[in-house]
């Protein structure tokens, strides 16, 4: 596998564009379009929140009930959530506008929105944005980057990644972009993610790959414990790499899964590290758990602990908060067996051994915790299951950002 520069336009046949439609923001782009030269098979995973935004419902219908998808239209600023029949109608109006100008079926157009909940989107501006983007569609890496920038809300950086692998003697590319900074605590994925590939793969196997991989990637991210109404990850495959179609599990499917896992892991970490107000990516690794389910529960309990997140912000090796968070997770374990380490680019330090402090050097611990990527590693000594979760520190700025998000 080779890591390459790029995002959603890295794979053959994919183009992108962005425009400033002034849906909510002024002086910046706020709409993006991703388009494939040929129809794609599509897979998707969506929020488990009972309150689902209109675009989620629209995309579920396209992914589950239609054979192909060819375009994605995304706006930032307004989420089109809790907007009733009118909001769902605007999804159709967006798809109709894209279908007309691109010459494709409306039921092959996916839509996505992110931003403030409860506001109706200005459909006239959305339609005008679609019309403005279609002539600008371009397969360059720069076009993909501009699309990644356009879908940002409180994100501080664009998020994109791409890789290449070889399947059946053909070069296959997988690329993706996402946005997410707040309201991040998924039960399937987080906020909005779009992954494109030129691999030839059946719709069934594409969905199988995405659904399986989400569990260890986007599902393991938490910024603030709030599951969004709009969580969506879409995966489009247009087959233009020319490999023999992947229709079953085996070596080719495993290679594709490896590439998809890299893309989704990178995007997940980018979201966690760019959490609202965050100064550090906080990674929690659980080793030696009795079961995979236990490992997942333990890692998520620690990464979502407000007290632990605050300690990470303060570069304070307050390990008692981590042990406490594992203790109330619901997982049964022996606290007198647990070893805990802190690790970053500044080094690795054993903090507790068999549930008791090692007498570590506080200054060294502070130095390790002062990096912008920090990992806590807990060895439970109960089995051989592992899991990794990603989050961020909790800062004053998180409250500031969310106290006046609508104004």
UniProtKB/TrEMBL annotation:
Pfam families: ArgJ
Broad class of enzyme this protein falls into: transferase
SUPFAM superfamilies in the cross-refs: DmpA/ArgJ-like
Catalyses which reaction(s): L-glutamate + acetyl-CoA = N-acetyl-L-glutamate + CoA + H(+); N(2)-acetyl-L-ornithine + L-glutamate = N-acetyl-L-glutamate + L-ornithine
Pathway the protein takes part in: Amino-acid biosynthesis; L-arginine biosynthesis; N(2)-acetyl-L-ornithine from L-glutamate: step 1/4; Amino-acid biosynthesis; L-arginine biosynthesis; L-ornithine and N-acetyl-L-glutamate from L-glutamate and N(2)-acetyl-L-ornithine (cyclic): step 1/1
GO BP field: L-arginine biosynthetic process; ornithine biosynthetic process
Residues annotated as binding substrate: 153, 179, 190, 276, 402, 407
Role noted for this protein: Catalyzes two activities which are involved in the cyclic version of arginine biosynthesis: the synthesis of N-acetylglutamate from glutamate and acetyl-CoA as the acetyl donor, and of ornithine by transacetylation between N(2)-acetylornithine and glutamate.
PANTHER family named in the record: ARGININE BIOSYNTHESIS BIFUNCTIONAL PROTEIN ARGJ, ARGININE BIOSYNTHESIS BIFUNCTIONAL PROTEIN ARGJ, MITOCHONDRIAL
Identification of the protein by name: Arginine biosynthesis bifunctional protein ArgJ
Gene assigned in the entry: argJ
């Amino acid at each position: 596998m080779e890591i390459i520069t790029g995002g959603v336009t890295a794979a053959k046949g994919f183009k992108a564009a962005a425009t400033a439609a002034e849906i909510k923001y002024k002086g910046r782009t706020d709409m993006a379009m991703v388009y494939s030269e040929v129809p794609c098979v599509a897979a998707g995973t969506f929020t488990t929140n009972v309150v689902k935004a209109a675009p989620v419902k629209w995309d579920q219908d396209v992914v589950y009930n239609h054979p192909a998808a060819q375009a994605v239209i995304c706006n930032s600023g307004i989420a089109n959530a809790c907007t009733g029949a009118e909001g769902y109608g605007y999804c159709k109006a967006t798809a109709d506008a894209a279908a007309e100008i691109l010459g494709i079926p409306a039921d092959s157009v996916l839509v996505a929105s992110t931003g403030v909940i409860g506001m109706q989107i200005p459909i006239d501006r959305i339609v005008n944005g679609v019309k403005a983007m279609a002539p600008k569609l371009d397969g360059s890496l720069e076009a993909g980057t501009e699309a990644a920038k356009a879908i940002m809300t409180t994100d501080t950086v664009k998020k994109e990644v791409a890789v290449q692998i070889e399947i059946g003697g053909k070069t296959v590319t997988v690329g993706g972009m996402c946005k997410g900074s707040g309201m991040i605590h998924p039960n399937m994925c987080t906020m909005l993610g779009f992954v494109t590939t030129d691999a030839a793969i059946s719709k069934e196997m594409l969905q199988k790959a995405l659904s399986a991989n989400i569990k260890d990637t986007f599902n393991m991210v938490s910024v603030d414990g709030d599951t969004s109404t709009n969580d969506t990850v879409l995966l489009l495959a247009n087959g233009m790499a020319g490999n023999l179609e992947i229709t079953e599990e085996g070596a080719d499917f495993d290679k594709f899964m490896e590439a998809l896992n890299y893309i989704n892991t990178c995007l997940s970490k980018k979201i966690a590290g760019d959490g609202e107000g965050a100064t550090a990516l906080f990674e929690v690794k659980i080793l030696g758990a009795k079961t995979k389910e236990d490992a997942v529960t333990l890692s998520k309990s620690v990464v979502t602990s407000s007290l632990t997140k605050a300690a990470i912000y303060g570069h304070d090796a307050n390990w008692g908060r981590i042990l406490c968070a594992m203790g109330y997770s619901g997982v049964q374990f022996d606290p007198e067996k647990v070893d805990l380490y802190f690790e970053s680019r500044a080094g690795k330090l054993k903090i507790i051994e068999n549930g008791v402090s090692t007498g570590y050097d506080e200054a060294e611990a502070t130095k390790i915790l002062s990096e912008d990527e920090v990992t806590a590693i807990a060895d439970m000594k109960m089995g051989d299951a592992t899991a990794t979760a990603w989050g961020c520190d909790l800062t004053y700025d998180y409250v500031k950002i969310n106290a006046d998000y609508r104004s």
